[in-house]
Amino acid sequence: MKNSNGFPEGFLWGGATAANQFEGAYNEGGKGLSTADMVRFIPKEERGEGFSLDVSGKEIEAILAGKVDAVFPKRFGVDFYHHYKEDIALLAEMGFKVFRLSINWARIFPNGDDTIPNEEGLAFYDDVFDECLKYGIEPLVTLSHYETPLNLTLKYNGWADRQVIDFFVQYAETVFKRYKDKVKYWLTFNEINIIALSPYTGGGVLVEEAENPMELSYQAGHHQFVASALATKIGHEINPELKIGCMLARMTTYPETNNPKDIIKAQEENQLNLFFTDVQARGEYPGYMDRYFNENNITIHKERGDDEILKAYPVDFISFSYYMSSTTSSNPSEDQVSGNFMGGIKNTYLETSDWGWQIDPIGLRWTLNDFYDRYQLPLFIVENGLGAYDKVEEDGSIHDDYRIDYLQKHIEQMKEAVLDGVDLMGYTSWGAIDLVSASTSEMSKRYGYVYVDQDDEGKGTLERSRKDSFFWYKKVIETNGMDLSK
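== 6-phospho-beta-glucosidase ==
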C-alpha cells in the first residue's frame, strides 16, 4: 500500500557496502586471499589516461613474491570485521530497514575449490546477521561482489573455466542453508555486466594472453549466468520464501542529438548494458546479441541444458546501481567525461562531481520506468551516492550538504517513478559508512553518512563520526520519504 507520498509501507530504506572495500582482516579468521587483495592504491597523479582496474598475472606473481612495495587498501578496508557491532548500531540509530553487504567468498571457502567450508568464517557472518536482526534490520546479501578467491584465478583463470560454476553453487548452497532463517534477500553477482568491461574485477579472469579477450569475457559471463540460475534454483528449494535477485551496473545512455544515427548508437549501447538483465530476468539470450557476437568474432560455448536452466530459474527481482548517465554520438566530440567503467560526451544540461561524474537525478526516474516497462519485476536500487571530499571541522562536525542535495534529488525522482506505477522495493545508497573506493582504492573519495578517520594509505584512528547527512537520512527514513528537507 502506497502512502500519499508515493513510497509504499514497508519500503526498505538502508545503505550498501561490499566486503572487499569494507571488511578488512584479509588474513584473519581462516580467510584466503581474494582478487581484491591484489589491488594496490595508485595516487591520482600516477593513474593517467586509460587507467585500468584489472591486475595482470605478472603483477599478481610479483605481489605474491613480495616484490611490490605498495599499499593494498582493500586488505584492510575500514575494519568492519572488528567494528561490526559499533557500525550496525550506527545504522540502527539511523533507522535502517535493510543493510546491503556481501559475503567474502574466500572467508567461507579460502581457496574457492575447497570441499569443506571454513567454520570461523561462517560464524562471523552468523554474528553479523544476528546483530542486524537484533535491531530489526534485514540483511541484503551479495554472494559475489568483486571478491573472487584468488586461487580460482591462479588455478582456473576464474570464471573463464566452467568448473567454477560448481564451486560457486557449492558456496551458494552452503550459505543458503546456513542463513536460511536469517537472510531473506540475496543477490548473486554484483554488477554482473562488469565481467565484460573489467574481467579481472568482475570474475577473476586474466585476459592479457587471450586471442580474443572479448570472447573470453563473455564466455565467463555465460558461466556466471548459469551459476546464478542454479543458485536461484537451490535457494528456492532450501527456503521458498527467499527472494533472489540480479544486480546490474545500469549505464543509462542518451543520444547526443535527435539525429537517427545518434539514436541508434544510444540504443545499441543500452542493449549491451541490458543484455545481462535480459538473460537473468527473461531467461534467454536476446536476438540483438547475435549480430554483436558475429561482428566481434564471439562464439559462446554452451553445454546441453544451459538454455533450459536459464529459462527455468529467472530472478525474483532486479537490482541495480545508478550513479550517472552518459551521452553518446555517431560523431563524438572531444569534450568527454568519465565514471566507473563508463564514459561519454559531456552533457551540458548536467552538473558533474569532483571526479567528473555527471549528476542526473531525472535519469533515475527514466531508468526506473524503462526497467519496469521492460521486465515487470520488482526493482531495488542497491547503489546510488556521491563520492566527494569531506572536511572535518575543528569541532568534529562534517557539513556534507552536497551529499544531502544529491540524495535528496534522486529520492525525489524515485518518488515520481513510484507514482508513475513502478514497483520499487527499496533503496540502499552507497555506502552506508565511508569505505575504500572500488575504482581508485582511495579513502578520500567518500560516500558514507558515517565518517571513518582513515587516509588513503590506511593511517588513522578508525574512529567513526556522524556527518550532517546521517541526521538528514534518519529523518527521511522516519518519515518514509515524506520529509526530504535539509
